[in-house]
Automatic annotation (TrEMBL):
Keywords attached to this entry: Signal
A Pfam family the protein falls into: LolA
UniProt protein name: Outer membrane lipoprotein carrier protein LolA
Domain of life: Bacteria
Upper classification of the organism: Bacteria, Pseudomonadati, Candidatus Kapaibacteriota, Candidatus Kapaibacteriia, Candidatus Kapaibacteriales
InterPro entries in the record: LolA/LolB/LppX, OM_lipoprot_carrier_LolA-like
Regions crossing the membrane: none
The keyword Membrane is annotated on this UniProt entry: no
């Protein structure tokens, strides 16, 4: 037997590698809706409800952002104002909604750390080509628990790394269509940028 053949035969197999990536892709590539709570690196917490196709509702301590897939309402109750704008599918803004429904389905996964003797695994997602980046994302590290729920997301672009911790994740929950529309209350200022 040649030295190369002997070396190939003695390389340990990574038995969990394909199944971890396969399970990740099966769970997240076909999803149509998501609900979760999140906390960013600065300690800001919020909730996300989203449906594939640009419909989402993000609730933060000081504001709520609602989108029906065409119009975005940025609501600040303390100032009694609403900024209204057009939803842009190709915008360079990055959000958890774009991560779950865009980056996680287009970028290619590679296993960084499997579950072996650990509670979590880490998958790195990379764009299929440099010109195929979404919102400038160079790479995305996703920490998964044993149930394949996302626990954290680390996004790296050309300038920085952003981390979100994810809890109470539900995939494909029933969603009320009224969650993705908004009517400006009487007496509130509406700033229409469309």
């Amino acid at each position: 037997m040649s030295t190369l053949a002997a070396a190939i035969c003695t390389v340990p197999a990574f038995s969990g590698t394909p199944s971890t990536i396969d399970r990740f892709e099966q769970r997240y590539h076909g999803m149509k809706a998501i609900r979760c709570t999140f906390q960013d690196a600065y300690g800001t917490s919020g909730t996300l409800q989203a449906v594939k196709g640009g419909k989402y509702r993000v609730t933060l301590p000081d504001r709520t952002i609602v989108c029906d897939g065409r119009t975005v309402w940025n609501v600040t109750p303390s100032q009694k104002n609403v900024i209204i704008n057009t939803y842009r599918h190709d915008a360079e803004d990055l959000s958890l909604e774009r991560i779950f429904f865009g980056v996680m389905t287009v970028y290619r996964p590679a296993l960084v750390r499997d579950f072996k003797n650990r509670q979590t695994a880490v998958i790195k997602l990379l764009p299929p080509a440099d010109n195929a980046r979404i919102a400038g994302v160079r790479s995305l590290d996703i920490e998964l628990d044993a149930s394949m729920h996302v626990r954290s997301v680390n996004v790296t672009d050309d300038m920085s790394t952003t981390k979100w911790t994810i809890t109470a994740l539900t995939l494909d929950p029933a969603m009320n269509a009224s969650s993705f529309t908004y009517s400006v209350p009487p007496g509130w200022e509406a700033i229409d940028l469309r």
